[in-house]
Design a protein that fits this description.
CATH superfamily: NADH Oxidase
Low-confidence stretches: none
Strand order of the largest sheet: 1-2-4-3
Distance between the termini: 41 Å
CATH topology: NADH Oxidase
Helix content: 40-55%
CATH class: Alpha Beta
CATH architecture: 3-Layer(aba) Sandwich
Order of helices and strands: HHEHHEHEHE
Number of helices: 6
Structural class: alpha+beta
Length: about 170
Amino acid sequence: MTKDVIEAIMERRTVRKFKDQPVPEPTIGRLLDAARMAPSAGNVQAWHFFVVLNSDYRQRLQEACLGQPSVGMAPMAIVVCTVPDLISKRYGERGKYLYSIQETAAAVQNLMLAAQGYGLATCWIGAFNEEQVKKAVDIDEAYRPVAVVLAGYTEGEVKAPPKKALQDVTTIIK
């Protein structure tokens, strides 16, 4: 059962401990569908998602992610890549170095909120060696890994981290 989007935003947590339980294939498809519906500069959609279900590949990916144990523990890892040449054809350097990051970040957020709606936990991994990730998952040079998203069923309860007060991070200009 899916949740209201505001509820999913408020309840989403970063999780690093997962049950040894696979994510159903139809759910994986829905998560990827949510990711690809993210906004994209000029609708170029310069992204590609590598879904890693195989435990041997996840162990290789764990090493590329600086040895983070949660990468090997999660039943699924999604390597989110940009396609720099595709976006730069239309938007030059700004597309390659800014728009590509913005749109993949939007795709990751969509994916994570959809996962929350399906009762899955996620972890956005940004600490990794790009070249090692490519080798670990056999990713072609045309793609640049920008995020690894872990997803699965959480092992235990995760408490909300403290957040800054709204007034501390907001300026309203009238």
